Amino acid sequence: GSISPRTGEDVNQPESGGQPIQICLSLQYRLPNTKALGTVYTSFGSTFHQRYTLIARNTISNVAQTFTPFDFWTKRAELSEAMLRAVQTSLQHQGLVEVTQLQIMRIDFPQQYEDMITNIQLQVQEKSVKEYQQRVLAVLNNFEVLRATNEATITVVRSRAVQAATVLQNQAHASALVMFQSAKANATEHVARTLEFTESQVIGYLRLKALSSHPSNRTVVGLKGPFASQ
């Protein structure tokens, strides 16, 4: 059936004394199968069910006043359990019956109050969505920073690799030049030693070798007063 209690004090409206609500629930109980059954009929007669309903309504109304309006949304399981325990105790003591089940079917608040709660919930959800969006944006920004850092690191590594390759290439060229010059010197020394050249003859040999490498039709060799031929 439907019960019309009030909730406990509303934290948003402390002077309201709670909010009026409508609770629709189902209740199951078991009559005793002992001599207590006779006591039930002796005490309540054929109207025992109406008596149990009244006891249950009063008990549930008392329990409802211990919960704030917001609890009816956020603590529904706790609310249902508290009502079940309270009704079990009261009907056992006052009616000698065992309550086996209590189920809340529906809870209705005044439309104005439900609209207010709905708006509050929408604001909370909107705040949560904005916070989530901010976290996503922060993650994306961090990703961009990491990407830029990685690209900068790659650029530095490539630059260092090119620099190292250039240094190695220059060193190789220098080493090759040194080896070439050393080979030329060794070859000249071998020729001079084989032909038993004097120092002046070696110089003349090198001069002739150089000239043969760069031929010209305007070259005079071995004259103290050189002249050019036409």
How would you characterize the overall build of this protein?
Residues 16-134 form the Band domain. It holds the Pfam family Band_7. By secondary structure, the protein is mainly alpha-helical. It has a domain at 2-109: Tetrahydropterin Synthase, Chain A (2-Layer Sandwich), CATH 3.30.479. It is 65% helix and 10% strand. The protein has helices at 36-44, 48-64, 71-74, 76-95, 111-195, 199-213, and strands at 2-3, 22-30, 98-108. It is rod-shaped. 8% of the residues are buried. Mean pLDDT is 83; it is low at 223-230.
Helix/strand structural class:
mainly alpha
* SSE sequence, one letter per element: EEHHHHEHH
Mean pLDDT figure: 83
Distance between the termini: 136 Å
Strand order of the largest sheet: 1-2-3
* Biggest sheet architecture: 3 strands, antiparallel
Rg: 54 Å
The CATH architecture term of the domain at 2-109 is: 2-Layer Sandwich
DSSP strand count:
3
- The CATH homologous superfamily of the domain at 2-109: Band 7 domain
* The top level CATH class name of the domain at 2-109: Alpha Beta
Shape: rod-shaped
Oligomer: single chain
> In percent, how helical is the residue content?
55-70%
- Strand content is 5-15%
By DSSP (H or I, 4+ residues per run), the number of helices equals: 6
The CATH topology of the domain at 2-109 comes to Tetrahydropterin Synthase, Chain A
InterPro entries: Band_7, Band_7/SPFH_dom_sf
Protein name: Band 7 domain-containing protein
Organism: Rhizochromulina marina
Domain Band: 16-134
